[in-house]
Design goal:
The complex is a heterodimer. By secondary structure, chain A is an all-alpha fold. In chain A, α3 runs parallel beside α7, α4 packs across α7 and α5 runs parallel beside α9. Chain B contains eight helices and nine strands. In chain B, α6 links the parallel β6 and β7. The longest helix of chain B has 16 residues. Chain B is globular, with a radius of gyration of 18 Å. Classes of the chains: A mainly alpha, B alpha/beta.
Chain lengths: 283, 261
């Protein structure tokens, strides 16, 4: 009997299950965990900002090449994919809008729709999601691996601030890269939008189309576009660097950290986007 | 390049208890009373899992103690970042896994602390890196990524990088771990040179050295100091004779039936 029980194939000893948690308790725990995660990422963002400001000109020979490298990764290298996306986005929006607008004789609003959809909403959000997928995930893996291999301790031992060396170049590179890519995406989508409208025989001259665009754009659009895309890039950098660096990871934990970072960054995009919609409505 | 040498102990621990790097609340060692004087060569021994690497991080000021008093160069770890940096540059640390940056070449790894802390012009930094790589016999692989070299050479690169800023205190984690006879002989000779004064160091100033090991035998010498880390206890010994008479705590670390590195 004893040997049967000690065998690995023996039936496990049943222990009384924990009392099931009520819906409200589970919800409260979830909210509490979200608050803790927000607090931790927020603290990391503040520390990074402080280092960015305090060491703005420190070690330029080391940091500037790293920033250029990040700009290339989060900007130039993604340009071909973004030009393809711009073409597809213009086609999708114009393709759908022309059919709907022609039914009600409102083709004259094509430019306005492009501004509202592409410039204010879809362009920045799509660009941010693509940068998160292509660069943000790589950040978590790289930094998580670096942490797991002890590179952070290596930097600290050399008197090099890991935030300054590993995070600041990514923050600057991703903020500028996301902004630049969004601008290219928007310009490409607006241009391809007209091309698809032209191919669908919409009676709209290029001059009229761009007059519609110019009429629908406000000065505030340019300011908020710069702020929003910069903020998206900042969020991508902070959330992914936090999950890669904030705690010592074992190599097998890196993939889970990546999934968490993507989920949190997308939630942050939605919250930020909602804030910017409020600003559009209030100003 | 470095602050003036003082007559204060280089490391002074009084009733120190510490956790591990990964879990700071988990006890690693307790009641450590240890003084390292300038120019001494300490060998800290312990079996696998005894916490030697974490203890070295404690000695480097990278792991805060749970309790007790730690002082370096006669003062506690500075709280202000600038002062802490000054302290950090007086301490060199070589890791068991070298912890080099694979996106940089060997030469760039060695140059990194010099370039980051702006210690000289580009030509001066290049000359210093060349000197360090030549001494560690790494010149032929200067432009290679660390990942393409075996562990023995990576460790030498880690030593070169730790020496780049000419530290006064050098802490090396398991330098002989996995080293073959040739590399072991090189390390023992190189470390002896550093403790007796070497041209790599300003004014041939001897460096204060602490190394960790899991086998005390290769480190036998009349001039070195020893300590054993076992069962969360840190036991210093005055000399090699005291080690060999140390009984149970050092028995496994001197076991004659164990093969040499």
């Amino acid at each position: 009997m004893q040997s049967e029980l000690s065998s690995p194939l023996a039936a496990p000893v049943l222990t009384p299950p924990a009392a099931p948690r009520g819906l409200s308790e589970r919800l409260a725990r979830r909210v509490f965990r979200i608050m803790l995660a927000t607090q931790a990422v927020g603290a990391f963002a503040l520390i990074t900002l402080a280092v960015l400001l305090r060491k703005f000109n420190a070690a330029p020979e080391v940091i500037q090449p790293l920033i250029r490298q990040q700009l290339y990764r989060a900007g130039l290298r993604l340009l071909p994919m973004f030009l393809f996306l711009a073409g597809a986005l213009g086609f999708l929006i114009i393709g759908q809008a022309v059919v709907a607008l022609q039914k009600i004789g409102a083709v004259g609003y094509l430019g306005t729709i492009m501004v509202v959809v592409v410039v204010r909403e879809l362009g920045p959000l799509l660009a941010a999601v693509m940068v998160l997928a292509r660069v943000g995930t790589a950040n978590v893996v790289e930094l998580g691996t670096a942490r797991a291999l002890g590179e952070v301790e290596g930097l600290e031992a050399l008197g090099i601030d890991p935030i300054h060396y590993l995070v600041v170049p990514r923050v600057v590179g991703l903020a500028l890269g996301t902004f630049s890519l969004t601008v290219y995406l928007i310009i490409g989508a607006l241009a391809s939008g007209y091309l698809w409208a032209f191919l669908q025989d919409v009676p709209l001259l290029p001059g009229d189309y761009f007059r519609q665009l110019a009429g629908a754009l406000r000065g505030l659009d340019f300011v908020l576009l710069a702020l929003k895309t910069g903020a998206f890039g900042f969020v991508i950098a902070i959330v992914t660097c936090y999950h890669g660096l904030a705690q010592p990871l074992r190599l097998e934990e890196v993939s889970r950290a990546t999934v968490r970072a993507v989920a949190q960054a997308i939630v942050a995009f939605v919250v930020l986007d909602a804030l910017f919609i409020l600003i559009y409505l209030l100003v | 390049m470095s602050a003036a040498i003082t007559t204060d102990p280089v490391i002074e621990m009084t009733n120190v208890a510490a956790g591990t790097m990964r879990h700071p609340e988990t006890p690693l060692v307790a009641d450590v009373n240890w003084t390292v004087a300038a120019g001494e060569f300490w060998v800290v021994a312990g079996l696998g899992g005894a916490g030697k690497s974490d203890f070295l991080m404690l000695a480097a000021g990278l792991l805060p103690p749970q309790r007790g008093r730690c002082r370096w160069f006669g003062a506690p770890l500075p709280e202000l970042e600038e002062a802490q940096l000054e302290f950090r540059l007086r301490v060199g640390l070589g890791f068991d896994g070298a912890h080099l940056f694979n996106e940089l070449s060997l030469a760039e790894n060695v140059a990194l602390p010099l370039r980051y802390h702006e210690r000289g012009s580009a030509a001066e930094i290049a000359a210093r890196v060349e000197q360090l790589l030549a001494w560690t016999e790494l010149t032929p692989w200067a432009d290679r990524s660390p990942g393409t070299l075996n562990r023995n050479w990576q460790k030498r690169a880690g030593l070169a990088r730790a020496l780049a800023l000419a530290p006064e205190l050098l802490l090396l984690d398991m330098p002989l771990n996995g080293a073959d006879a040739q590399h072991s002989a090189w390390w023992l000779e190189a470390l002896t040179q550093l403790t007796t004064g070497h041209e790599l160091l300003p004014d041939r100033r001897p460096v204060t050295l602490v190394v960790t090991t899991n086998d005390l035998r290769p480190w036998e010498s009349g001039s070195r100091r020893y300590a054993v880390l076992r069962d969360r206890q840190f036991t210093p010994f005055t000399d090699w004779a005291a080690v060999t008479a140390g009984g149970a705590p050092v028995k496994e670390l001197l076991a004659r039936n164990l093969p040499h590195h």
